Amino acid sequence: MILSNRMKLIDPAPLDDMFAFGVDPTVISLACGNPDAALFPAEALKTAAAEAIGADPVAALQYGKTNGYPPLRELIRRRLLEKQHVVCGEGELLVTTGSQQGLEMLAKTLVNEGDMVLTEEPAFIGSLNAFRSAGATLAGVPMEKDGMDLSALDRLLTAHPETKFVYTISTSNNPTGISTSAEKRAAFYKIIKKHRVLVAEDDPYCELRFDGRILPPIKSMDTEGLVVYFGSFSKILAPGLRVGYVCADEAIIRQLATAKQTADLQTPALPQMMIVNYAKENDLDAHIALLRRCYAEKCGVMLDAIRRYFPACITATEPDGGLFLWCDLNNGADTNELVREALNRHVAFVPGYAFMTDLTKKQSALRLNFSALPAVQIEEGIRRLGTLLRS
């Protein structure tokens, strides 16, 4: 089989390995990006599914509207306004099969082969691969402790005025856990307005900041229709539902809806109805608060273990939310070469190269996930990894 030029650009290994490690019971996987399965509200979702099929089996099991189940659309628009201070009009919302689909559709809609896309770096593997699959040329903007290096962003946009869009995870960036500060968000938007370029703001972790305070997204400042905002129920409810959404200018949503029709016609109605029923009968905010408390505790366990077991030269970010943190060995080592050695010790991580725009450059960093495992396994995994790093 001969692959297309676009698919030749995709390295499947990081995601393949991530999911494989996550189901191997002999491996303590600090690699996967999974929420804690023990916190899934399984019984409540089971009831919500039964209610959906029982009350309206045709709506639950038949084809539905491309733009989404109307009651879910209303729920999303209401929560966007109440929680994120984002005004999303009726024609400005599209329900997607996970936010990953929305990002892939944006790239497919806007990018011709060779077109420039700027992205904070490091950035989420899945998004980078979605942009690569559309034929984009990627350029990275370095991350600082409070978000993207805005001077570098301004220089790159000046050098590449043809840029199709800029990608950012504004809260609890995957993989670093870094959140863009409120001040930097405002400055970021000024630069975007100056260059008249679109922004893809990926914000699945906005409600998982440990202190419970949601940083208003860049989209909440958007008066020009320049920000395409992506959200998801994967991290706050259950990823297997595969329900996300896009909020953007009506003209953009119309084009994304056309792209969605070519992909899967519509997001399945049953999981959309389950979310609505769950929210009617349960306190979604209380559930999210529980997630925040649990993930804050696990993050603390991981950071404490890193301080005890890792060599002192290794630095780690200290996330204020989300599911991940980022370590740098600071010694020029290639963490991709350490993956197999780590597996021999029955522990897994994701090497840093996977989150970069240039996959050929060696990286001394790695990503660790603290959400998926119990505290005792987190500590043991860090101990095993620390033994390897010290050797």
Write down the CATH class of the largest domain. Alpha Beta
Percent range of helical residues: 40-55%
In CATH terms, the superfamily of the largest domain is Type I PLP-dependent aspartate aminotransferase-like (Major domain)
For the record, the CATH architecture of the largest domain stands as 3-Layer(aba) Sandwich
The order of strands across the largest sheet is 2-9-8-7-6-3-4-5
Total number of helices: 13
Q: What proportion strand?
A: 5-15%
Question: Unreliable stretches, pLDDT < 50, 5 or more residues?
Answer: none
Structural class: alpha/beta
Shape: globular
- Using the coordinates shown, work out and report the CATH topology of the largest domain: Aspartate Aminotransferase, domain 2
Secondary-structure element pattern, one letter each: HEHHHEHEHEEHEHEEEHHHEEHEEEH
Q: In total, how many beta strands?
A: 14
Summarize the main sheet: 8 strands, mixed
What gyration radius follows from the Cα positions, in whole Å? 21 Å
The first-to-last residue Cα distance is: 43 Å
In total, the number of domains comes to 2
What does this entry look like structurally?
- The chain folds into 2 domains: 7-41 and 286-390, Alpha-Beta Complex (Aspartate Aminotransferase, domain 1); 62-281, Aspartate Aminotransferase, domain 2 (3-Layer(aba) Sandwich), CATH 3.40.640.
- 42% of the residues lie in helices and 15% in strands.
- It has 13 helices and 14 strands.
- The strands form 3 sheets. The protein has an 8-stranded mixed sheet, sandwiched between helices.
- Helix 8 links the parallel strand 6 (165-169) and strand 7 (198-202).
- Helix 5 runs parallel beside helix 6, helix 7 runs parallel beside helix 8 (182-195) and helix 11 runs parallel beside helix 13.
- The longest helix has 26 residues, at 284-309.
